[in-house]
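User: Can you help me understand a structure? I only have the sequence.
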Amino acid sequence: MTHAPASLVIAPAHHRQLRTHLFPGDGLEAAALLLCRRIGQSRERYLVHDLILVPHAACGRREPDALSWPGQYAEQAVERADATDSSIVALHSHPGSLFGFSAQDDASDKVLLPALYHATNRPALSAIMLPSGAMRARMFVGRGPFQPLEHVISAGDDIHVWPGGAAVPPVPPTLPVTFTQGMRQSLARLCACVIGVSGTGSIVAEQLARLGFGAIILVDFDKVEARNLDRILNSTLTDADQGRLKVEMFQDAIRRYNPHCQVRAVSASIATREAILAACEADVLFSCVDAAEGRHVADRLAAACAMPLFDVGVSIPTRQAGGDRAIAEVCGRIEYVQPGGSTLLDRDVYSGATLEAEYLARVAPGAHRRRVAEGYIKGLAEEAPAVISLNMRAASATVMEFIARAFPFRHTCNRSFARTIFMLADGEEEHVSEDAFAASGAIPTCTGLQEPLLGLPALAAPRAAA
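Assistant: Let's start by predicting it. Here is the structure, written out as tokens:
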């Protein structure tokens, strides 16, 4: 039985809780059961949303390399799985740091996983965790051998991606040196979603494709126009004349230089079901939009699916200088949002007021025209602003922020870089720590794609005709 490529996604708070429970310091194996929701079609992601920590004393047998599963906790997991439409992951520790499934694990899983599968009528998973926190997982789907998951991912201050597959050695592979061919090979396992393929988004997508991402999802509803040829990479006069969709133009461009990258073009607003159902399959999310609504949806999507989110914005405020306008500052802002941490809403990147103002602009055409005309340069109407250099600076900083977290190279903790702001007129760059922001919990995390999608009534599934 074939199955779509699958991965296991676990929020950093859940990962920390499990690591503490599974390694109490006695050198013996310990166990937990995880409930996870399946999201995605072409790329399945099993998102952990609840934990059952099996008491150490409840395991009839705990040894350095063996464990017996207490039946009552498996029954409890089945009940919760039925109530939440979830799959079950049977997780245990490997105190000896074997990064693989032992013969003892195979024998145990051949009994436990079919039982969980038939009790829930959903795929059943098994996973191991090492003292380092590294994880590996596999899946049982009703018949045939266990299917190894492509990777397990947990995005906190650092983005951890632990590879799976039969070829992975029994010792956790070390991260390749940053900026080497090894980094490129590691990125081939990952899928990125870029929301907005225009000024900054096209440059972000170009970097991701050339760095070697295995898959890229492009989301944008707009078409190429002559007035934005000066800042959308790979766009041509022919594209503008034909009114080609930005995502289709960019998809073709990537295929010309990286045929190994699987590119999916979604010609829709991110605030649509089509776009959400596509974007949820990515491992990492890049928000390259200039509208509050787009950021709001990206914020909710990242929280719901435990995805790391990178948001970028640029601005050129002006001031009155005599009878003319003059440049006051040239700014770029990069945000990193981790699952369970402070959101873009918590950081006032957007607010209820800006969302309302955008709605009014949409229903009041005159106000909408004024907003579009102002564009990048505040106080000046520019149809085709010469901002590609600024966009490149901001887009490069965004991708570098991802690299710094997935392949850590900084001399200080990544937690100190939740927000980066650069100001080119003053030649300054500021960094704000995650600890400087308060996580309100206003946007639910690890909920998956329950209806209505992202908790937004506008994204609810259409009702069937009577």
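Now, to help you interpret it: The chain has twelve helices and 21 strands. The radius of gyration is 24 Å. Let me know which part you'd like to focus on.
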